[in-house]
Specification:
This protein is an all-alpha fold. It is built from 12 helices and no strands. Helices cover about 75% and strands about 0% of the residues. Keywords: Endoplasmic reticulum, Kinase, Membrane, Transferase, Transmembrane, Transmembrane helix.
Length: about 300
């Protein structure tokens, strides 16, 4: 249900995002005008999607609402979306709290790894196709949000900078790409799935690569390493203690998850990927939220 509409919506959203990026960059010296770019492109996108699904504008809005709530008996969708909204609300409240205290720590930044991972796990277990759609749409929203912040587009830029710059990671430049890498890294296996629309779709262990590498492993490495890390790797600021924490936490998560998979992966591949990803993380200085899940996905 809604398979073709989902695909059409993703195409329209990605093309629209690319168009907004292009025109916004051209008009970057006039940030106030970028609001008009958003309004025009989004209006055209709604019209284009309406034509693709052969509906009126109001019919399209009704379709979009139906796509969110699912079928009449889809209480799983309602509960899942409610859970997602709760995770988003908690993240916003947490963001406001950290802004109020004026500083962020490694633990604070890894909090978002937890909420995104919980959203992903609930999505792939209860509604993988809808989660696939949302992953692409969230990616577009994250990119456009960073565009508004980076170009300081009024009135959004000041608010976004106030609440987001405090979470700036040492890996970030003027662009805050870490949240985008986090989203892509965790949802990458689902976004690349070719059979997600199949009624008998069953997740494989590889679909949890992002959660294992970033949601669990990288988070434990950062928390343990920053708190108890004493033995530094040669040529790196990362610690042996953090690497061991990542390896054993990844290994534990993957072994437990593997017991619930209909087509489980081999124990050898699980041990190998936990070791390889942990060693690579020890020397990564950028894009770990994307590179680690991608490597884990390829090996699993």
């Amino acid at each position: 249900m809604f398979g073709d509409e989902y695909g059409n919506l993703v195409v329209v959203a990605t093309v629209s995002t690319a168009t907004i990026l292009a025109f916004s960059w051209i008009l970057r010296r006039h940030p106030i005008v970028i609001n008009a770019v958003f309004a025009v492109v989004i209006s055209i996108a709604i019209f284009a999607f309406s034509n693709l699904v052969n509906r009126s504008i109001f019919g399209t809005l009704e379709l979009l609402f139906q796509m969110v709530i699912g079928s009449n008996n889809s209480w799983n969708r309602v509960y899942m979306v409610a859970f997602w909204l709760a995770m988003v609300a908690i993240s916003v409240i947490f963001c406001v709290y950290v802004t109020s205290i004026g500083r962020s720590s490694t633990v604070h930044r890894k909090f978002f790894h937890l909420t995104v991972s919980l959203i992903y796990i609930s999505g792939i277990l209860f509604d993988p196709l809808f989660s696939w759609l949302c992953a692409w749409l969230w990616l577009c929203i994250f990119i456009l949000t960073e565009l508004l912040r980076y170009l300081n587009v009024p009135p959004w830029g000041a608010v976004l900078n106030e609440h987001l710059l405090i979470f700036k990671d040492v890996q970030d430049s003027e662009l805050l790409l870490t949240p985008i890498y986090l989203l892509v890294g965790i949802f990458l296996p689902l976004m690349l799935s070719q059979n997600v629309a199949d009624l008998d779709f069953q997740p494989k262990l590889a679909h949890f690569a992002g959660v294992a590498a970033v949601g669990v492993g990288d988070s434990m490495a950062a928390i343990v390493g920053s708190t108890w890390g004493k033995t530094k790797w040669t040529g790196s600021e990362k610690s042996l203690e953090g690497t061991l924490a990542m390896m054993f936490s990844m290994l534990t998560f993957l072994l437990i998850t593997n017991t619930f998979i209909l087509d489980p992966s081999s124990v050898v591949s699980i041990i190998s990927v936990s070791l390889i990803a942990s060693l690579i993380e020890a020397y990564l200085t950028a894009m770990d939220n994307f590179i680690l899940p991608f490597i884990t996905y390829l090996i699993l």
